[in-house]
Every structure is written in structure tokens, then in C-alpha cells.
Design goal:
Elements: E1 8-11, H1 17-29, E2 38-41, H2 65-74, H3 82-94, H4 106-128, E3 131-134, E4 141-145, H5 153-170, E5 178-182, E6 186-190, E7 195-199, H6 209-225, E8 228-229, H7 235-238, H8 262-271, H9 279-282, E9 297-301, H10 306-311, H11 318-329, E10 338-341, E11 348-351, E12 354-357, H12 362-379, E13 383-387, H13 389-396, H14 402-405, E14 409-411, E15 417-421, H15 424-429, H16 433-457
Parallel strand pairs: 1-2, 4-5, 9-10, 9-13, 13-15
Antiparallel strand pairs: 3-4, 5-6, 6-7, 7-8, 11-12, 14-15
Helix pairs in contact: 2-4, 3-4, 8-12, 12-13
Bound molecules: iron/sulfur cluster.
Length: 458
């Protein structure tokens, strides 16, 4: 895996954790400085895989467990420099540098940001993954499609396989259910016993569920034939999943035909180049709303945060995770709602290596209302849930005191129904635990009420 002139390591695939660890170990022991190493992926390089063993220096070294855990997550990020970045951190740590204690260290900060982005995307994939149930041939195959922002398929497939296995244990009379998850990068296949990983499918071939089923019929056997058995990412270090309380059963496959509105797909493309206000110049990308066409509930927040800006999807960061939990407790499946923000670009102030959130101002909210109107007109929800003061101001055109107006339906200027509640990020800022628990319960109660109203309006 390395050449003698200038060590070039070619990993087997984007998530080749074992390969990266073996190469890192051998080169650190051989004293190979980071700046003389190059890293690439075998499947994407035009060069042939170099022959030859790793350097054979003996000895051993240790690095903090927390650094290994950080590397196991960050290696799943879609960032070409991650192998080099993580090698540098290990190189410095084995030399005795307390890298994990250097809070403002740019390399450590970048690795932590990558790991955070991976965790957020892994969570989002688990929240959003949906399946088509293919009943023939038996046993049922749950066929899923997802376009991940990072390389989280393998670790998430392991979690999902455990859920499928747990469901079977809970109900042994059920037939063994299989799943196949296709993504543009790779695919994962659970046959009831083993997990296999195979090639992916181009996103352009899968515009909707009908095309997904057709692609599977045509290419499924080829994909399966090319699959390898195995798990690339160590489960314990790769992703954390909150343990589910015993009174809640393991989540099973959710069969949910899901079709995005084609006009909104086009609008999202147009918005990706929007420069109607100055916010578009500083942020990474436009974060448009998402959800199925014709969703009964439309949720509006303030603006994308740091994680949303990197991943390009709404409510995938810390506030999104609180919202997901509250939605689940309120009995609302996030896959059935449309969710967006009043302002589509992240507004922030740089501070060292961090980006500090700034509240958008009235003119920015007003200008970005253009896109919000496109989403609302196209979705025509039964109820629009305004989360926080910015969302309420965007729709009502006036300052709103949330505590006074939350929790009940009212008529919006366009004749449809609106509902106000707090923004989930507010719950992150409540200082003491008791108040936080009280505010969280009030938020869940608001969501339950919103769901009830949306059902009644129907
Ligand atoms: S914040 Fe809204 S209006 Fe401003 S550039 Fe972004 S998408 Fe356009």
C-alpha cells in the first residue's frame, strides 16, 4: 500500500477504517512525517494501487482513546483531507503533544467539526430513511434510498440490522425481513443474518419511488453479486445512538411512499444561486425546506445553523435533534412533515475557529419571504407551525411575543391556519434543569395540539 519514493497510501474505500489505522500505525512507527505522505482512495484514483508492504519498524505507541473515537467518526466525513488531518493529529499525540487539550487548535477543531457533521448526518439518515416494501419474492424486502451528505451508510446499516434483529426477537413468528439501502456511494444489504456492502446507484436514476423499484428489479442481482460481507466501521466507536427506553419498542421499517413536489425541487435549485440579500455570500450553501408533497403540517424555524449550513439540510443540528425527539413524543413522524426556515442562509459572525449565530434582521426576513411563499403556496398545508419569533414575524409581518400567542390555532392573512410555539433552540438555552424539563414538556404539548388541529382541519 505504499511506494518507497514518496509514501502514497491508497485506501480501499471512503470508509476504510482498518486500512487507515494499519497505515497510520506503520508510518508513525517508521517516523514518516505527515507532510511526506499522500492519501487516496483506490476506487477513485486513476493510478494503479501501489505494491509493497508498509514500513516494518517495530515498537508501539499509544494515543488517547478519545482521539481514536474522534477519528472513527471524522473518517466518515465527506472531506478529502480527513485522512491526512487525522494522521497529523495521531502523529502529534504520539509525540507527547496534548492535542485534545488545545481547545483552539485548528486541526483539532476541524476534526471535531467533521465528527459533529457526521453524527448529525447519521442521525438525520436514521430519521429520514424510508422504505418501499417489496412483497415478492418473499420474504419481504424493505428497499430504501438515501443520498447521504457524509459516508454514514455502513455504520447506520449496522444499527438498522440490529433493529431488524431486535424486532424479530420481539416477535419470533414474523418472517425474516430483509433490507437493501441504496445510495449514490454504496449500498447495504441485510439478508436476515449477514450484512453485505455493494456498489451504489447514480442519483439521476432514482427520481422517485417507482424508478427505485424498477432499478432494483433491473440491477439488484448485479449489485448483490458485487457485494462483500463485512463491517467496515467499528460499531462502538462509529456512531452513538441514544438507548431507547424499554417502554418503546425498537423502530421497525416504515413504509412511506414519499414524493417531493417537483415545483419545489426546481425552486430549491433556483434558490441555491440566490443572492437577493447579502447573507448568500458568506454562508456555505442555501438550505431549502424538505418534506413530502402535500404534507398536512408545515414547520417554519428561523434560519439554518452551523451544522445545517455544512450539511445543506434543515434541522439536523442540536436544535433539530431536540425537535426530532419532541416530534416523536408528540406522535408526529418527521418524514410526514414539511420543514423549512424563514431565512435560507446561515447568518453568523466568525470568532476564532467558530461561527457564532446571529439573528436575521427584518429586511433579510422580508427579502427571503419570497422563498417561503413559494414553499407555502406549493405545499398548501393544513396547518403552518411557526417556531419562534423570526418565523412568526416572517409570516405575520409584525413582532410577536411567543409566550402570549403560542399554543392555539389562528387565521393567517392568507386565510389558512397558523400556530405559534417556541423554537427548539430556545430549549437549549434554558439554564436550569427543572425549567428546561418544564419548557420541553410545554413544547411537546404544543406539537400534540398542532397535530390534533391538523387532523381536525382535514
Ligand atoms: S437569505 Fe434568502 S434571500 Fe438572502 S440570499 Fe439567502 S436565499 Fe436569498
Amino acid at each position: 500500500m505504499f511506494s518507497h519514493a514518496m509514501p502514497r497510501i491508497v485506501l480501499a474505500r471512503e470508509t476504510d477504517w482498518d486500512g487507515w489505522r494499519a497505515a497510520t500505525r506503520a508510518h508513525v512507527l517508521a517516523g514518516t512525517p505527515p507532510e511526506t505522505l499522500t492519501w487516496s482512495i483506490g476506487a477513485t484514483t486513476a493510478d494503479p494501487r501501489p505494491e509493497g508492504p508498509f514500513p516494518q519498524a517495530g515498537g508501539s505507541f499509544g494515543v488517547p482513546r478519545a482521539l481514536v473515537a474522534l477519528a472513527a467518526q471524522a473518517i466518515q466525513a465527506r472531506a478529502p483531507d480527513r485522512f491526512d488531518l487525522l494522521y497529523r493529529l495521531v502523529w502529534r499525540a504520539q509525540a507527547g503533544e496534548p492535542v485534545l487539550e488545545q481547545r483552539d487548535d485548528p486541526e483539532l477543531s476541524r476534526a471535531r467539526r467533521l465528527a459533529l457533521a457526521v453524527r448529525a448526518e447519521a442521525h438525520r439518515m436514521r430519521t429520514h430513511l424510508r422504505f418501499l416494501a417489496l412483497l415478492h419474492p418473499t420474504p419481504t424486502l424493505y428497499l430504501g434510498w438515501y443520498v447521504p451528505a457524509h459516508f454514514v451508510l455502513e455504520a447506520n446499516a449496522q444499527l438498522l440490522a440490529r433493529r431488524f434483529a431486535a424486532q424479530r426477537l420481539a416477535a419470533p413468528s414474523l418472517a425474516v425481513a430483509r433490507f437493501a439501502i441504496l445510495t449514490p456511494d454504496a449500498s447495504a444489504h441485510w439478508d436476515g443474518t449477514n450484512l453485505h456492502f455493494g456498489p451504489g446507484l447514480a442519483a439521476t436514476l432514482v427520481p422517485n419511488d417507482v424508478a427505485l423499484a424498477a432499478q432494483w428489479r433491473d440491477y439488484g442481482p448485479d449489485i448483490l453479486a458485487a457485494a462483500r460481507i463485512g463491517t467496515a466501521i467499528p460499531q462502538a466507536e462509529a456512531l452513538d445512538e441514544d438507548p431507547r427506553p424499554p417502554d418503546r419498542p425498537p423502530i421497525g421499517p416504515v413504509v412511506l411512499p414519499f414524493q417531493r413536489d417537483s415545483a419545489l425541487i426546481a425552486a430549491a435549485e433556483d434558490a441555491s444561486a440566490c443572492r437577493r440579500c447579502p447573507l448568500g455570500d458568506k454562508a456555505t450553501q442555501t438550505v431549502f425546506g424538505e418534506g413530502p408533497a402535500g404534507a398536512a403540517l408545515l414547520f417554519i424555524g428561523e434560519q439554518p445553523g452551523d451544522q445545517e449550513d455544512i450539511i445543506g439540510r434543515p434541522f439536523v443540528g442540536p436544535a433539530g435533534q431536540i425537535l426530532d425527539r419532541a416530534l416523536e413524543e408528540a406522535g408526529i413522524d418527521r418524514r410526514t412533515i414539511y420543514i423549512t426556515n424563514a431565512v435560507k442562509h446561515f447568518k453568523f459572525t466568525p470568532r476564532g475557529t467558530r461561527r457564532i449565530h446571529q439573528t436575521p434582521e427584518a429586511p433579510e426576513i422580508q427579502i427571503c419571504r419570497f422563498w417561503l411563499d413559494v414553499e407555502r403556496v406549493q405545499q398548501r398545508p393544513r396547518l403552518t407551525v411557526l417556531m419562534g419569533a423570526t418565523a412568526a414575524r416572517a409570516i405575520l409581518g409584525r413582532p410577536v411575543t411567543i409566550g402570549r400567542e403560542r399554543g392555539r390555532a389562528f387565521r393567517l392573512p392568507d386565510g389558512t391556519q397558523g400556530f405559534i410555539t417556541v423554537h427548539p433552540s430556545f430549549l437549549l438555552r434554558v439554564p436550569d434543569e427543572d425549567s428546561r424539563a418544564r419548557e420541553y414538556a410545554a413544547f411537546v404539548a404544543d406539537l400534540r395540539e398542532a397535530s390534533r388541529i391538523a387532523t381536525e382541519v382535514a
